DNA sequence: TAGAAACTGGTAAGCGTTTCCCGACTCTTC
DNA sequence: GAAGAGTCGGGAAACGCTTACCAGTTTCTA
């Protein structure tokens, strides 16, 4: 009863700019100008056009728009794996910001798979995205090359090629990790171990170095057996912790390169008689949503998704919309900070009970657990 | 050195079909036919064209294609909240399947927010998606209306309007929940409580009814105090469990309407002296990834993301590509089944130790914990 | 009051495809 | 050897929009 209107074949275009023009008794050029808010149109006329738009229910066709303007108003977002809880949060923020700026976002996960990644890039090319944010936290060389060749604005995390259209989100791992180490040291820990991510992943190496430096600053040494390489997964975290417990002088605290690793550590300890935090303190990194849901809720270094997303979208927009893309800053700083929850405490028997409260207060910075 | 080629203004189109045509010394029509694998082209000629395509690095422009063909080859996917761990898994599967069929997917989350949802639908309309899967597990009436009016293929979960272009994924909650109840009953539980989702959410009501029926089948009664309404969140699960423990005869087992609720229950119990599963057994629903990472790993009713995604994509494709969309089946069944992990066990002291093993074997169906 | 400047709004040329229609060519067949 | 059937491939018309260019009006200045 309603769809008989225009069913020449299968669904064809809805109403178009001509319908609006006819109804408002103006040319299509004027409609276009009104819709795009080009100020040279008489306000009265504009009002008439808007009314017509409303009356006929006109929605501009993005494909046509993109075709003629050369910009798709789509931003690509490449992450490692969408099922890793860190990323949905990032995606969400990114999407909100992009949409607020009139962009759509095309999401893809590499799953650490070259073939998949290549197809992903090809897809983005085909849809002619206006720019791509690569938030994989690991440089995958080929990916970089393919993308760079095509000349559209690019954003990487931590490091990226020295090219005019590339911006880099510089995460300040040092601050957060130093806070974590100092927090543990203030609680009385001296034997602090570190479970890193896969070291060929650049971000993993950077985090590890940040840990080493923070320890050195406090004059604490880290025996080789206290540095274990994991894979940023729960399983690897569990395995790493089991290995740490076998060493002659097991640590009283463990700092992990990401939260999933820390969760693995919690699991490993759950299978022993050790309790967290009474026997061993655990610190994660990322502050994924899940961290606060663990038992006990995880003390962790927060890397704000919102900050990351904001910087990424802004850097991309700057590259796309600026008249002088060359002069846009190349590096965008991102802060990290410790969030203290319940997985860290004094090492067993380290302090007399009555001084605990004071020390605790001192050792626990900004306890904003959410 | 390379980009001087064609930089009339800001980045303009790369190579186009004309370039290929020129190089292969054919018309653009032929190139189009070759690229679209229309069989009426002489194989030799086709080979020449493919070579030209390769030589000049031609990538068809999707916008133009979409403009003329009227199909964007984009599938819309609407979920409730991408940060709820259930959804990324669904998104991933959906995307894989869609891409395999040559579609791109446009994801959006409603966040239970009407305004946001409206803008989302407007965006999808603008990008002229070929179809939309609404996987929110809750009917939001306005959403439905807006979508339905536009006539493109639609997929809903559980229930949807009776319209020719609408397909419905019918989840068989009954089977999985019955398995869960029988599992608990077999272990010896009689006082089994249920924490539902928000009951105005259709899926929540269905799950609750499935629980009631399963209990009735076993001749077990459910006192009103053992049915608590939650909100499908961790916080609400925690609150509900606290309420349950205050009742005169607290349950020995709790079935939850989703996993997040169950996780909340775990948290509530963690703050008491009750242990899971020794004192209380807990069963979730969904089998989110996280479920197996809990302490203890959660026994839960699995609703397979892959099944859901597969059905959604297929139903959508059927609506889009079929010559006779009317004859495509309206209902697509989805199974559920129990996955037994470690959060369920005998009620304390219910069975003598020596018979445990046997009972356990009997009571634990298909223990495929991953 | 004439002429220039400032505004408005219309015409039409693409943007890169797909696809209809038709002509050219190759085979058959009588 | 010519006519009819069957292939193949090219020309050109959309698809819906933006925007350069231009023409008509109005307003301002000398």
Most extensive interface: pair and counts?
Answer: A-B, 50 and 51 residues
Order of helices and strands of chain A: HHHHEHEHEHEEHEHEHEHEEHEEH
Q: Report low-confidence residues of chain A grouped into runs of 5 or more.
A: 1-13, 352-370
- Annotated CATH architecture of the largest domain in chain A: 3-Layer(aba) Sandwich
Major sheet of chain A? 6 strands, parallel
**Order of strands in the sheet with most strands of chain A:** 2-1-3-4-5-11
Indicate the percent of residues in helices of chain A: 40-55%
> What distance lies between the first and last C-alpha atoms of chain A, to the nearest angstrom?
53 Å
Given the structure, what is the number of helices of chain A?
13
How many structurally independent domains of chain A? Answer: 3
Rounded mean pLDDT of chain A is 86
Query: What would you call the structural class of chain A?
Result: alpha/beta
Rg over CA atoms of chain A: 26 Å
Q: What portion of residues of chain A belong to β-strands?
A: 15-25%
Identify the CATH class of the largest domain in chain A.
Alpha Beta
Shape of chain A: elongated
Would you identify the CATH H-level superfamily of the largest domain in chain A?
A: Response regulator
CATH topology of the largest domain in chain A: Rossmann fold
Oligomeric state as shown: homodimer
How many β-strand runs of chain A? 12
Provide a descriptive summary of the structure in words:
In chain A, helix 5 links the parallel strand 1 and strand 2. Chain A has 3 domains: 49 residues, lambda repressor-like DNA-binding domains (434 Repressor (Amino-terminal Domain), Orthogonal Bundle); 131 residues, Response regulator (Rossmann fold); 159 residues, Response regulator (Rossmann fold), CATH 3.40.50.2300. The first copy, chain A, has a 6-stranded parallel β-sheet with strand order 2-1-3-4-5-11, sandwiched between helices. In chain A, strands 7-6-8-9-10-12 form a 6-stranded mixed β-sheet, with helices on both faces. With 370 residues, chain A is an alpha/beta fold. In chain A, helix 8 packs across helix 9. The first copy, chain A, is elongated. The longest helix of chain A is centred in the C-terminal third of the chain and has 17 residues. The interface between A and B is large, with 50 and 51 residues. Chain B binds a DNA duplex (30 and 30 nucleotides) through helix 2 and helix 4.
